[in-house]
């Protein structure tokens, strides 16, 4: 069965390849504007929109017998949802808020198959060491945080500031592949 990833994220592509799945990338053009304030509800809704948009495109082109995987990740701190920074200054602000504190990373995943959607989310708590203003500026200058929820990537340069995590590491990278694989096994 053909699998499509409804995301252009290089990290998600690497994670799927890591577990031996063969797939094709089909970036979703789904509307990501959403007023949901609950991080779990938000990532589930956005992952479903992404999967549904790609499923609709594939069906319209006459394709059948496929699975689509949609995903969305956000960082939540004290009731605020931190998506991707809008600018380097926004990244500095976000990292300043995360410095020395614990926050949660939520990734919602939707598996679209035939006319069925299986949607779930994972939550991982991440604790940061204190970061000086100079360290934050140095990290932002790498441009690494500019395309990541919460303005950081746990798997790169920012790893030096991670005190610890509770939960699925891969969820923080952008895709809880263990849970995803278990859900896929139920369908295949």
CATH architecture type? Alpha-Beta Complex
CATH class: Alpha Beta
Mean pLDDT metric = 95
Order of helices and strands: EHEHEEHEEHEHH
Looking at the structure, the CATH topology is Maf protein
Largest sheet: 7 strands, mixed
| Share of helix, binned | 25-40%
Q: Which percent range describes the beta-strand content?
A: 25-35%
Low-confidence stretches: none
**Number of discrete helical segments:** 6
Q: Tell me the domain tally.
A: 1
Radius of gyration over C-alpha positions, nearest whole angstrom: 17 Å
Question: How far is it from the N-terminal to the C-terminal residue, by CA?
Answer: 8 Å
Describe the 3D structure.
By secondary structure, the chain is α/β, with parallel strands linked by helices. The protein has helices at residues 10-18, 39-60, 88-98, 133-141, 169-173, 177-187; strands at residues 2-5, 24-25, 66-77, 80-82, 102-113, 116-128, 162-166. Strands 1, 2, 3, 4, 5, 6 and 7 form a seven-stranded mixed beta sheet that branches. α3 packs across α4. The chain is elongated, with a radius of gyration of 17 Å.
Briefly summarize what is shown.
With 188 residues, this protein is α/β, with parallel strands linked by helices. The protein contains six helices and seven strands. The protein has one domain (2-187): Maf protein.
Characteristics of this structure?
Maf protein; seven-stranded mixed β-sheet; alpha/beta; 6 helices; 188 residues
């Amino acid at each position: 069965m053909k699998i499509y990833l409804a995301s252009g994220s290089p990290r998600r592509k690497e994670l799927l390849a890591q577990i031996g799945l063969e797939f094709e990338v089909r970036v979703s053009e789904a509307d990501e504007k959403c007023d949901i304030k609950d991080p779990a509800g938000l990532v589930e809704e956005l992952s479903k929109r992404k999967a549904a948009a790609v499923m609709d495109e594939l069906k319209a082109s006459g394709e059948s017998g496929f699975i689509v995987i949609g995903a969305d990740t956000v960082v939540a701190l004290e009731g605020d949802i931190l998506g991707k920074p809008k600018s380097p200054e926004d990244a500095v602000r976000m990292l300043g808020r995360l410095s020395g504190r614990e926050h949660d990373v939520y990734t919602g995943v939707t598996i679209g198959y035939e006319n069925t959607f299986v949607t779930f989310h994972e939550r991982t708590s991440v604790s940061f060491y204190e970061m000086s203003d100079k360290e934050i500026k140095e990290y932002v200058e790498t441009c690494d945080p500019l395309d990541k929820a919460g303005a950081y990537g746990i798997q790169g340069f920012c790893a030096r500031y991670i005190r610890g995590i509770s939960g699925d590491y891969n969820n923080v990278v952008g895709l809880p592949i263990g849970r995803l694989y278990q859900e896929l096994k139920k369908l295949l």
